[in-house]
Design brief:
homodimer; alpha/beta; 8-stranded mixed sheet; 17% strand
């Protein structure tokens, strides 16, 4: 690499400074210079030259020092491409030596001069000479005495006197910082934050403004908004007779900025400077189009702006800041949308453990559903329901959950399971409900029978003890921990409305219950993309009917039971249609294996035998007969629908009758009926002919006409491969990426937890494919499926409705292949809408 | 359809008679005419004209009758395209009436004339007038009296006198036969035998040769080979004063043909005629290039050949006949190969229930592995082993089998399970071992705990009772039933050698044991395509070691156990290499989930706790922890190989050490190592680097060099889709179509049995995809996989090694896509070789 002109550039309005070559800080400082703000003289060193310095090919220090006065003290700060990537700490007061000490003693006073020199010796020793910080520990007091002791300590450790030449000092500081950037730890840390392998470091060399000395002297930071809320509020700190960011360290003598805070404020102490500072901050906000934190120094009454950085912000503040910048006309709405990381939205929708809370961690697991909740430990769905009835909060603790636990999950405030991964039953249902959930917590021991949890450290927790589940980070905490409430204010809705305007792919919701549907409508879902009807059958009264149906001895007996389920199911759909107000509702026909409705333990079997008035041996035999080796690959979905056609017929009737009822209530809907687990075209033909017949029957009986669409859930690789055939009998195809991933990998999501962590760590898989859509394998099937389906039915509606539906990566994939919509769990809807909007906006940008 | 010249064609040497227009019998008769054989005058009616007759547009009878003498009596016989498709029965003696009766009474005698007339009246009444056969039951005696009673019975039933005009008789007969062909039952029956929807019927009208009358008169059949064995033997029957095939009905007066059979023979009675007949039969064999059964009639010492049909034959006879025709130079070897239906070969390789045995069926199931065996009922592998040690035959009866039962299966003579389908564990292992097997026998009740089987009709069978399993047709028979031995003679070997010459795709075997390997070598397998190493660990001593390994607490402890397994595994491979004599041996690394090695019942858990000297609760806990929801989709295959790398390392070491030992014994082998259940390229890279390291170590330690090939078993849809990446690190890809089918359909083969029957019946699936390769779905993945693999590695070896490997349909698919070999279970090897040869031959034909 050749050294070029811009490698060592004095920052002026026109200097060739750019973020990709000099880093963000250098560029930002140039912007401040262009705004005529009082920025001390600054030189930017490019990535190129810093890389050379690290390699031992430093330029002549004169090339840098020439750009400053001989007496200037300097500070050096990192300037990487993104401020997120970190960098070495700043080194202040370079150029301080015995001579400067004498000079500054005269201008600033000896105490201040000694303080500055001491601080430089200390910083240089630790960061540059890499001495042990504790060699300065014995030094008490301040002033010249302390300085001498520090210089002596340096000499004792290094066998050299403290370097007096500014060029040597600077050269050593630059080398040290350049090398630190190339260290392994620093590289891994920044890579984890998304930095590329060859991310460069720029450095800026700035003339020191002194916050110590005569007159009003000090340093501080200021910003115009509250970092927690994003609301306008001048916040910051100022400390007299201090350098740099000392004001941020708590302690006596720190001033607030404005009058309205407690204590003496900068506004009172120095109203002129305060108002100038405020003006300059507002100018920066307007011209830099961002809320900035200003780092300033006051030197004998004169204001210097040393730096400006983006205000750090909580997710909820990020939303308000972006919306308010757009509403002020400073940025466009699209820009506001682009500034929010969709994945942080989750935090806005749930209660969270307060950042100030004390965390006594009793165990860890997989953070499967975000948000936090505290409650008593209960070990069964029944106990959870009992708690609910007493209005006591509870945490449902299970080895794993099954459909039978769903009612208990509804009653609980959070769920904790020993087994499972991101897409285990508990995790999927938990996210759907917005219920905080930790799964795969095998760091603690579950004695569910003894009703005990044994913490990592051996502490025993029993039923009734309070714990807190932090589903956002996977920590299980002792007791009730402080929470902050979710933030769903107007600003959030405004952002969502803008997102909708920008979106070019629809976002629907996976919703099984009226509660889900309401949440989703609130979050702006454009319809239901997946309504899993089976959950409707796990309620106590229906469960019993389902069991009666399973034990029915004839079609007639089975139909009699289904006739009793029909009105319940019809009511389910009427309620959903009512909430969804004419937006599409896609109902998946019954999917799970029937044995999920049967008990497997002794007590359950006995109860069932009693309920059905059958010998226990008969019940046991039937249950055994129905058990499966691999339920995921067994008798469920359309296979059940074809073998026991009465179930689908009842469901179709319920849907059509609810459709008629909805149209009577001026709430017309075109229901979509989806056939699960299809693998062959003929399955679709058979179900279609039966459902069409039911529709004819309902039309004839009611005398009322209605429309409906029949489609296929593509969950098997075969259905994707044969999508060309299947599309001929389907109005839509919806890819169920959960099951499709399981089958494409030959990997059960419930069993994958055991090794997925190790697999991802060893980079066998780049990511858990249940967590992030595997675009290379599963995506290949989606691509083939959509391509083949469109070849035979160009107007077919295609979508995905698996757990992946809400993730930005899947939405990008779906947009790329022109899917009509994605469907995701209610609490993912806002995330999906924002991500979709961002993708559309990015594409329109040049 | 227009009537054309050939619609009513006198069969001469040059008449335009063809099988597709006139049927096989007409064509065959023309061939006999061309050989100058004494065939009575015959007219062939085309499919076209018979179809018109059925539609009521019969031609003028004169067009037919003109071709005969006025006094000729006629018979009509069906002539469809294939003799397998059946057809209406022959009607004899058309033209018989009162006048003819008088005439024939003069020439043949009254008794014979009356007999002929009676017979015609009876045949006409039943087949044409559709009268109830029992109207003739009351007629006793023969001669003119009986005839009159018959004519009276006809009149009484029809209110008409018996038709006297020959043209009317013929017209009615033709109409009746033409209509019968179009009936629903007849159509369904012939479609079941492969006839197309529009299969036509031709009819032949032949002048009757009388087997009754003065001088040497009679009728019979003759063939030159034994239908059971295919060995040369003049067989047949002759009956004096009889018509048609009366000789075949048992009864007094029937003569054998040759001297060497018991009783008076045609050879003695009429040596000239016998020798002429024999000469003509030999001529037919030579010129018709087939073993024919001749139907002949002797009329006053003159021989007439009425018909010739392919000799019916048992599969073993079919092989001998084809080979012997080729060896006599009558047909080419390729033609001989084409004449054997590969699917019938299975019957040659196993004992079968004798065709004459009395079958007392106690229940039915799926015929999962062909062959028959009788033995005592036992309900556990242990009991089977006990029987074996007492040298008593036994039938292992289980609800289903698991790997723990394999030793018991080796000890048993047949297996019967309540559950499962064609590809359940019992079925697959059974076919591999050549062990007769019936699965899915849910027509009977299994009380395995009470050690009872309850037959369909309620009879109870208990442990120790004898039953016979007919794995060829799925019948479970009471007691010990007569068997016939398998027929693996020189002829069979000759056919197999010819097949090998014709083959252009290799056939390997799936063999896990030395017994399998020996069988397969005997059947001509060209290597082992799949050696499943896990079966080697289910033997009692190794099982214990496996359990110790599972409970090991550290890598070191685990390695110590594996060190003890190493020499056993090395011996396994040395033995296989020895038997396979340098042909390729492809070893699949350990595949099943570890929990298959753990007990699940109380007693087993207690035994294990004792054996490992651990508390029962610890053992129970560990076993519970390891259980999986969907074992098929869980922690097995390469996932286990990566998580517990010591297992693969031990196996690789054993393979390499055995390779060195084999080369020392002048039996050099290039072992192939196959990684199971791969879904991502990185899995292959990780295992490859470890195995390469083991190879380096073994080479360094032994100082001996050796080669090996590392490949991938493609069992997940993802591996097929990503075959392009994966091929970069693999010398070969072998498609495991069992698992691939399961995952492509999302269908467990163990659970599919419950509905597959109904599914195939309703034509949801055209065939059970575990039974016949699903070329549209699974085949699509094979096609994509091979295409993508070859794009990145043009010389990669590709094969299939699932259960489908041996079926003609899969072989056709594999040849079409240029697979290098197929691998199948030992007893499928001959089937596969023959099928492959036939495909190659068909393709070469114009």
């Amino acid at each position: 690499m050749q050294q070029v002109d811009s490698d060592i550039a004095l920052i002026t309005q026109t200097a060739p400074i750019n973020t990709p070559t000099h880093g963000g800080r250098a560029k930002c400082l140039q912007r401040l210079v262009r705004l005529d703000l009082p920025v001390p003289r600054t030189v930017a060193l490019s990535f190129n030259i810093v890389h050379k310095i690290a390699a031992g090919e430093a330029p002549a220090m004169a090339d840098i020092l020439d750009k400053f006065e001989e007496e200037d003290l300097l500070c050096v700060r990192p300037s990487s491409e993104s401020s997120d990537w970190g960098g070495p700490g700043a080194v202040l007061n370079i150029g301080m030596n015995d001579e400067a000490f004498q000079r500054l003693s005269r201008t600033l006073g000896e105490a201040s001069a000694a303080n500055i020199y001491f601080r430089f010796v200390q910083g240089y020793s630790i960061h540059v000479a890499r001495l042990d910080p504790d060699i300065f520990d014995h030094i008490n007091g301040q002033g010249a005495q302390a300085l001498e002791e520090a210089l002596a300590a340096y000499e004792a450790e290094t066998d050299e006197t403290f370097p007096q030449k500014k060029s040597v000092q600077l050269s050593e500081v630059l080398r040290s910082m350049a090398r630190a950037w190339e260290g392994t730890t620093a590289r891994l840390l920044r890579q984890a934050k998304g930095a590329p392998l060859d991310a460069g470091l720029g450095l800026i060399v700035q003339k020191m403004a002194f916050g110590v000395g005569r007159g009003e002297c000090g340093a501080g930071v200021l910003q115009l908004v509250n970092s927690e809320t994003g609301l306008p509020q001048i916040t910051g700190r100022y400390r007299r007779q201090s350098q740099w960011r000392d004001a941020l360290a708590a302690g006596r003598g720190t001033l607030y900025l404005t009058r309205d805070e407690r204590g003496v404020s900068l506004e009172e102490v120095s109203p002129e400077i305060f108002h100038k500072l405020k003006e300059q901050a507002e100018l920066m906000r307007r011209r830099l189009r961002e809320e900035m934190q200003i780092q300033f120094t006051i030197e004998d009454g004169r204001l210097h702006i040393l730096d400006g950085v983006k205000v750090a912000r909580e997710p909820r503040a990020a939303v308000r800041i972006a919306v308010s910048l757009a509403q002020s006309g400073i940025i466009a709405k699209e820009e506001a949308l682009m500034r929010i990381d969709p994945t942080t939205l989750g935090g806005l929708l749930h209660r969270q453990v307060s950042q100030n809370a004390t965390r006594d961690v009793l165990g860890l697991g997989i953070a499967a559903s975000p948000g936090a909740a505290a409650g008593q430990i209960v070990f069964s769905a029944e106990a959870a329901l009992a708690c609910k009835s007493r209005e006591e909060p509870c945490i449902l603790v299970r080895r794993e959950t099954s459909p039978e636990d769903v009612r208990g999950m509804h009653a609980a405030n959070a769920v904790l399971t020993e087994r499972g991964g991101m897409t285990s039953h508990a995790a999927v249902i938990g996210r759907g409900m917005g219920l905080p959930c930790i799964v795969g917590a095998n760091s603690i021991r579950f004695h569910t029978r003894r009703k005990q949890l044994i913490a990592i450290d051996g502490r025993v927790f029993k039923e009734g003890d309070f714990i807190t589940i932090d589903g956002t980070n996977g920590e299980i905490l002792v007791g009730r921990v402080d929470m902050v409430e979710p933030a769903l204010d107007d600003t959030f809705q405004t952002l969502m409305n803008w997102a909708e305007d920008a979106c070019d792919i629809q976002v629907r919701v996976n919703a099984d219950t009226t509660a889900d549907a309401k949440t989703a409508r609130h979050f702006g879902a454009q319809g239901i993309g997946l309504c899993r009807t089976e959950h409707m059958f796990f309620e106590a009264d229906r469960m019993t009917l389902m069991q009666e149906m399973i034990f029915a001895k004839s079609r007639a007996e089975r139909e009699a039971v289904l006739d009793r389920l029909l009105p319940m199911q019809r009511n389910d759909f009427m309620a959903l249609f009512g909430i969804m107000e004419g937006t599409p509702v896609c109902i998946r026909l019954f999917d799970p294996p029937l044995h999920e409705f049967l008990p497997s333990d002794r007590v359950g079997l006995r109860d069932l035998a009693e309920a059905l008035d059958l010998p226990l041996s008969d019940v046991t035999r039937r249950v055994e007969e129905m058990s499966e080796y691999n339920p995921m690959l067994g008798m469920r979905g359309v296979r059940l629908g074809i073998t026991v056609p009465e179930i689908y017929e009842m469901q179709a009737r319920a849907i059509f009758e609810a459709t008629i009822a909805a149209s009577r209530e001026k709430n017309p809907v075109v229901p979509e009926i989806m056939i699960p687990l299809v693998s062959a075209k003929r399955e679709v033909e058979l179900v279609k002919s039966r459902i069409d017949a039911v529709a004819l029957g309902v039309r004839a009986k009611s005398g009322i006409d209605f429309d409906y669409r029949l489609g296929v859930m593509v969950e098997t690789p075969r259905a994707a491969l044969r999508a060309g055939d299947i599309a001929l009998n389907a109005a839509f195809l919806s890819f169920g990426t959960n099951d499709l991933t399981q089958m494409t990998y030959g990997l059960s999501r419930d069993d994958a937890g055991r090794f997925m962590g190790a697999y991802v760590k060893q980079e066998v898989f780049p990511e858990d494919p249940f967590h992030m859509l595997d675009t290379e394998g599963v995506g290949e099937l989606l691509r083939l499926g959509v391509e083949r389906a469109r070849e035979s039915a160009p107007d077919i509606i295609v979508s995905i409705c698996g757990e992946h539906g809400g993730s930005p990566e899947s939405i990008a994939f779906c947009r790329q292949h022109r899917f009509n919509y994605v469907s995701c769990s209610p609490f993912r809807v806002p995330v999906a809408r924002l991500a979709a909007a961002q993708l559309a906006i990015s594409e329109q940008r040049p």
